[in-house]
Specification:
The protein is α+β, with helices and mostly antiparallel strands. The protein contains three helices and ten strands, in the order βαββββαβαββββ. The two termini are 22 Å apart. The structure holds nickel (II) ion.
């Protein structure tokens, strides 16, 4: 966690995008199209509603998807917070000093306008995602 982080979204692991999205749509959220992200091997959509935090739903494509273990262990559950930063490489360097471990090299996220993202883990904070603001 760093002072310059801007909250972006909560990532929720789900078994099926449409089944879970229905609950949000019925309470006034708008849903983006569901897309397949080959970098993460998951199906993704975003749910937005004025004045509410953005929600990302991630569903596995198969048992190798990164959300599969989370679903096996906990069922449908929030599993990451995402923060926007201006410089993802600088933020990763700052987080390393705080003992966050990057789980992947920064990749382009198909579901977020091909912006660069990275996942990092710290045992006292949990899993966070960074997304780089487009310059
Ligand atoms: Ni996310």
């Amino acid at each position: 966690m760093l002072p310059y982080f801007r909250f972006h979204h909560i990532g929720v692991a789900v078994f099926d995008i449409d089944t879970t999205a229905k609950f949000y749509i019925d309470s006034g959220y708008s849903k983006t199209e569901t897309i397949y992200d080959p970098h993460q091997n998951v199906y993704i959509c975003f749910l937005t509603k004025e004045g509410m935090p953005m929600i990302e739903l991630l569903a596995p494509k198969d048992e190798t998807s990164p959300v599969t273990k989370t679903l096996d262990k906990s069922g449908v559950t929030p599993y990451h917070f995402c923060y926007e930063v201006d410089d993802i490489d600088g933020a990763i360097a700052d987080l390393r000093k705080l003992k966050f471990v990057p789980l992947i090299k920064p990749v382009e996220a198909c579901a977020i306008d091909n912006k660069k993202i990275c996942f990092l883990f710290n045992k006292n904070v949990g899993l966070i995602e960074l997304v780089e603001a487009k310059k």
